[in-house]
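thread: overnight batch results

M.L. [08:02]
morning all. the overnight job finished for the chain we discussed friday. pasting input first so we're all looking at the same thing
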Amino acid sequence: MVIMSRLPLPLLVLPLAALWVCSCSSEGGGSSETAADVADLATLADGSGESAEVLVDTADAAVPQPPPKPGFCEPNDQEFPVRPALTESATLPFLHVEGLDIVNENSEPVALRGVNFGSWLMMGAWIAGIGVMDEGELLAALDAKAEELGLSDLLADAKNSNLLEWVLEKRSHYPLVQEWRAYCLANAGNEQAAVEALWDWFAKQPWVFEEESLWLWLQGRFGYAAAEELRLTFQQNYITELDVERVAALGLNLIRVPVWFGSLETDFEEGNHYREEGWLMLHELGVWARRHGVYLMIDLHGTPGGQSTSWHQGLADGGHLWGNPECIAKTVRLWQALATYFAGDSHVAVYDLMNEPMSFPDADSYREVHDAIYQAIRPIDPDHIVMIEDGNRPASQHVPPAAHGWHKAQFSVHT
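M.L. [08:03]
and the structure it wrote out:
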C-alpha cells in the first residue's frame, strides 16, 4: 500500500530572483540584460506585482550565446551515466509485491507513507509559487483585454474554432491559444490594429505553466546560458538533506520524486547528451535516503514527447508520446539508463514508469508502450517494483500488470 500526501513540508525555497543574483556571480554565466530586467524577474517570481530590491553588477557581462535548436524526441546516443560509488550502507531492505501487498524480504506487508518532492526535478509552478497569474487568471485577463479593445466577439469565434479539442483535452493549451491568435489576425478586417495590440499585450505576459515554458521564458529574457545556470541553482537549493531528515522525523518512509525527462537529458536537433547534474542530484538524494531510512519512488513525470496533453507533463505541446516511435524509443532508453543507475539500490522502492498517461489512444497503445519499457528494464534490473498508472481513464482501457505477465509490478489508481 502506498499513501501519498500533497501537504507541503517546511522545505527550503529560495526566490527565483535571489537565485538569479547568485547565478550572475559565476564566471561565464552572465548576460547583457539590465538590473531592471532582473527586478522584473523578481516581480514574476513573487507574484506581488512589486519589484524587489535587486543588486546586479552588469559590468563586463558576457554576450548571450544562441540556444541550441530544440528537437522532437531526437536520439541521445551517449553512454549511460555511471553512478558514483555508494559509501553509505543501505538501511532498508528491497521490497517486492505479493498479491495486493508490498512486502519486505520476510513477506511482511509494508505500508509506504510519504510525500511528493514536486517542483524540484519536475517544475510545478503552482507548487513553487512561480508566476504572476495561473493559466485561468491569464486567460480571464485576455478576455478582459479583448473586451476593452472591442474584440470579445472575435476572440469568442477564435475559441470556438478549436473548442472541441480544448474540452476533450486532445491537444495542449498553448498551441490552441496560439491558434486563437492566428484566427484573430486572419479575421481582423478593419480591426487589425486592435488585434495586434491584443496579442502584443498577451505575448508580454509570462506563460510559465509548463516546465519547458518556464525555462524558454527565462531564456528569452536572459539568454540560454543564464537560464540554464538559474535552473541548476534553483534545483540545487530547492531540496536539501534537511528535507529528507524532516520526512523521516514525521514518521514517513517514502519520497516520491517526480522527474521531467529534460532534467536528465537534452532534446536538441543535434548534440544530445545526459545532464550530469540531474543524475548527481538523484544520486545525492539516494544517499540521504540511506542516511535517514526512507524509500524513494522514481516517477517519470514527463516523458519525451509528453504522455498527456496536460501542462503537468512538462512540454508546452505534449501528448505526442503515443504513436511516435522516436518518442517511445527515447523514453525506453531513458528508463534503461535509470535502471542501470539504480540497479541494486534497495532504497529505491518503485519505478513509476510515467505519471498520468492521460492521452493514450487505446488499450493496445497503453499495453505496447508500457510493456516496451518494462521489457527494457528487466534484463538490467530484475529487483525493483515497477508501477503503472491509470491516467484517469476507464478501467476497460487499462491492462494491469498481471495481464502483461509482469513480475514485481503494481497498478496505481489516481484518487
